[in-house]
Amino acid sequence: MLTVFVVSDATGETAEQVVRSALIQFEGAPARIVRVGRVLTAERVREVVGEASREESLVVHTLVSDELRRVMLSEARRRGVDAMDIMGPLLERLATHLRLSPREKPGLFRQLAEAKSREVEAVEFAFRHDDGERVEDLDRAEVVLVGVSRTMKTPTMLYLAYRGWFAANVPVILRIPPHPRLLALPPSRVFCLSMEAGRLVELRQARAKAHRVPLEPYASLPHVQAELREAHELARRQRWEEIDVTGKSVEEVAREIMTLLHAAGSPRYDHPEAGDGGIRETDT
């Protein structure tokens, strides 16, 4: 039986998937896979090659460290082990075409995959918790946006979701008490979006005309002012941060919220390619 050693300086799951996909083409082949992850030292490379040399084997590795790849090559030749590097040639070709040096950071591909998976989950969560829906499990949200109608709650929530934040939004409706689940949330997780009354009236009038709905009282200045006062008082009582969105883009509002979340110590995980807009502990 052939033993395929899958060696990686990360978990090795990605490389194992590649090997299994290849083995499917050899139905019923007498082969088994041994995954060896977290191979981070030359000594560990030699140990794995030594183990492989004691049986019929093939070593497939995705070591991103140039030094460890050299050790693997020399040790495999010395012990007569067939070793296949499926990461090095790709890194070299990309380095040549991009005129850049690889970062040699183990597990980066897996981190990217995990980040993308989280973003998908976050977007699904946002759509399920838009405009006060499913308020019963609001405590699962990492950030909740509240505010009166047309204060950019939904687009800001989606912007956050596409960056991996589990976000929800709940409308503030004049003379209707907020749901207890909302009031029970930690204040640092809730943000009240506000807008200058005159600008909000303009937006509501445009929406009312587009949808052929009555302007009164939805788009009247006194009604809008009353709604904004109620939202402001609610935010003050609950100690929620108020964000004035007047004249701001969705991106600007979202970045302001993310900065405040980080300042409050909101827990996040490291995103492998975090930069502006990425998902990581200190730089979202």
Based on the model shown, name its key terms.
single chain, 284 residues, alpha/beta, Rossmann fold, 2 domains, four-stranded parallel beta sheet, 10 helices, 45% helix, 14% strand, elongated, disordered C terminus
Description:
By secondary structure, this protein is α/β, with parallel strands linked by helices. The chain has two domains: 2-98, 3-Layer(aba) Sandwich (Rossmann fold), CATH 3.40.50.2300; 115-263, Rossmann fold. It is built from ten helices and eight strands. The chain has helices at 13-23, 42-52, 66-79, 88-98, 108-128, 153-161, 180-183, 197-210, 221-238, 250-263; strands at 2-7, 31-36, 57-61, 82-85, 143-147, 167-171, 190-194, 241-244. The strands form two sheets. It has a four-stranded parallel β-sheet with strand order 2-1-3-4, with helices on both faces. Helix 3 links the parallel strand 3 (57-61) and strand 4 (82-85).
